[in-house]
Amino acid sequence: MDMYKKILFNGLGLSLIFLFSCGSSNPETSQAQGQPQSRPATLVKTQVVQLHDLSEILELPGTLEPENIANVLSTTEGKITRMDARQGDKVSEGQVLAMLSPLLREDIINAARLNLLEKEQAVEQKPGDNTLNQDLQQARSDYEFALRQYREIPVIAPVNGIISDRWVDMGDMVPARHKMFEIQSNSQLLVKVPVSELDIRKLQVGQNVRVTSDACPEQIFRGSIQRIYPQVDRQSRNATVEVLVPNPCPQLRSGMFVRASFTTRTINNAVAIPVSALLERGQQRMVFIVEDQHAEQVTVETGLETGGLVEIVNGLQAGQHLVVEGQEQLQSGRQVRIQQPSGSASREGGQE
Q1: 346 part of a folded domain
Q2: What gap in Å lies between CA 299 and CA 175, rounded to an integer?
Q3: Domain endpoint, select from 206, 235, 267
Q4: How far is the C-alpha of 253 from the C-alpha of 269, rounded, in Å?
Q5: Total number of domains in the chain
Q6: Mean residue pLDDT across the chain
């Protein structure tokens, strides 16, 4: 009986050892016990952090106006006897726009004409009267002298430009110094730009300005600030800035809408990265860099943001390898695999 119990206990012990041995070799049991498992590397795209020259650009709408407007006035009281210019006509300095017959000329010539008619009628009644014939000859001479001496006055364009307005018509009687034409000089144009009281302090006279217009979509015009108005509008809180554009295209006209771009600040050799590489986590901004085939999370301090780039004031240095795609799935210490450009062989981990 004792021998039987001894054999039974020995058999049970061997069975338990076998069961424990089998259980410890089960993968699910090993995973439940927390043994580490290998994870595939995350595919990311990187680029080297570089230095850039960054500029802060202030782009505002503006309205074109002519730099010079010439008002053409009548030099004397008279009658418009000829009209040679209309709105929209391009004129040159010295070109005749109209002819003006002064009232004094009209009075003298009309008097001489009436006198001539009177003498002609008298001669018709008494053709043999020598005295009347002499009077007729004198009346004809006076009339011809009046025509030569009292001429019509040409109205002359004082500048090159385009006639933008006209206030007289053929046959009109106009007083002296009456406004007849307005000529806009388009060799240079002004852009009037409303600028807020917060931004006006960033601008100064002589500063270069880029001007673009839908009328000339493929051209960029270079101008400069001519003047900054001292007063600020009480309602809009804007001040007016005048920008001179010296070489506009022929399609630009007064009253057109344009865009003026002012460079208010420039930072040379700034550490800058694509804005898309930034991650927002709480109140912090961060990025991922690659070191020794692993991603490392870095908190950064940012500055100027322009043109799709953001200045990194603190946290990164030029030459580091920045994750620009795939960073949303990363955690610090995660192994990464860097995506290669099309046509090149891929590498596991490492840096570009």
Answers
A1: no
A2: 79
A3: 267
A4: 40
A5: 3
A6: 83
